[in-house]
Amino acid sequence: MRKKFLIGYVILVHLFLLLVLLKSDFTTRVGYRVGLIGRSEITQHFQNMITYHKRMDANIPDGAVIFIGDSMTQGLCVSAVATPSVNFGIGNDTTVGVLVRLREYHSLERASVCVMAIGSNDLQRRRKEEILKNYSLILEAVPPHLPLVFCAVLPVDERVRNDLAGKNSRIRELNSGLKALCEAQSPKCMFVDPGPKLTDSSDNLRKEYDEGDGVHLNGAGNAIWIQELRKIVKKAQQRA
Questions:
Q1: Which among 82, 156, 198, 202 is least surrounded, fewest beta carbons within 10 Å?
Q2: What is the number of other CB atoms lying within 10 angstroms of the CB of residue 139?
Q3: Hey, which residues does 189 pair with through a beta bridge?
């Protein structure tokens, strides 16, 4: 009898510890140590932003459009695309960061559409195949009833900085794979690519849409992006 009690006690202790680990950032810390998650991707800034997002998450109304992405999204006036909406953009974020934080957004269960604009920063860290795998994992992590809009990675102006050389060809290859992934998951997933309306004859981001760093859109560029997002979000809501 005592032996059975001890076995039951040990099992309960292990179950409790497992629950604590899952609720904490322990798995993220382990990921750091074994190299599965780079420290450059899950920064203190990232953690701070998640804290703010969690505060907002409980106050998001039913049927909102939720935007998740990197600095491009963070600098976007999402209320110009849809109302109500919420901006969960985090500068420098990657597909890895999105996978880490998706579980914190309980409002996704009540949203009408999720717009995902991520991947530009991944190109500095991983191959196309790895990024597409992460896109697939994001698709699986989003609630099954929720329409997901994937926005293409936007073009850059390679003429502005040396470190941007060759990036547009990689962006086009990645977007081609992302489009195919979304088409295979239709109607849950929809793909939108504003790139052709933002580029010049050399396939670079037009100077009149460039904020100045060759990457981020200015007001005129964001206005075009917003127009394209409005159309695709409306279609996604009609499908829901």
A1: 202
A2: 18
A3: 148
